[in-house]
Amino acid sequence: MLEINNLVVDIEDKRILNGLSLTVNDGEVAAIMGPNGSGKSTLSYVIAGKEDYTVLDGEILLNGENILELEPSERAAKGVFLAFQYPLEIPGVATMTFLKSVLNAQRKARDEDELTTPDFMRRVKKAAETLEIDQEMLKRALNVGFSGGEKKRMEILQMALLEPSFCILDETDSGLDIDALRIVAEGVNALRAKDRSFLVITHYQRLLNYIVPDTVHVMSKGKVVRSGGKELALELEANGYADYRELAA
Questions:
Q1: Keywords, A to Z (predicted)?
Q2: Bridge-based pairing state of the strands 14-24 and 2-11
């Protein structure tokens, strides 16, 4: 699914990723953990194609294709989806208009027919019910006036509608109470499939109690310094990151 080899990335002449390598297999849920400033969010942005980052070396292969030269929209059409830590509010853009435009734009990029309005409405209604998103939320401008939990549920709704093959969750648990975390996690777990992989970025074990990973990778100073099973997250929760800062030094 995804293979990253020796990725070196700067922003404003500051080294953020320093020879990072990582593999996420088909159907795998891989968790990335690490201290603040280790490069976790930068990794998510570079995979998705966010501007401002300078890639000095390495490659990101999605199903064998190096996607570094592709625009963000092209990466999205090939199946990459990023759920942001802090989803943006977009005043003046109706949520339903946004969802339909994005969904049909991706379908067009894949040479698929655009959805009719009735088909689109049925898909949204089904996904929204799973995520406990009421119809009033869907009538508002995108994320405007939403709580933190509502914004995160809206991100997962987009993911459910777009059906990407590689999903990145950048600290999705940030700012969520227990009820909102449960709802978001259930939405993610419902999308787990043998042909869909996840990269879950988090500081804390609690998210991984709900979205149980197949593998856990520890980042420090811009590289992966240790990998293991789900029990590694429990070790990190108990002992912290001090030992891994020394490994990356």
A1: ATP-binding, Nucleotide-binding
A2: antiparallel
The DSSP symbol for 196 reads B
Q: Does the pTM exceed 0.70? A: yes
For the segment 197-236, what is each residue's pLDDT rounded down to a tens digit? 999 998 878 888 888 999 999 999 999 999 999 888 888 8
Alpha helices in 78-204 (DSSP H): 95-109, 117-130, 135-138, 148-162, 178-190
Domain extent listing, the chain: 2-248
Distance CA 186, CA 156 (A): 10
Topology of the domain covering 2-248 = Rossmann fold (3.40.50)
DSSP state at residue 223: E
Give the H or E element holding residue 39. none
Which two three-digit tokens encode residue 40? 């976790």
Q: How far apart are CA 19 and CA 17, in angstroms?
A: 6
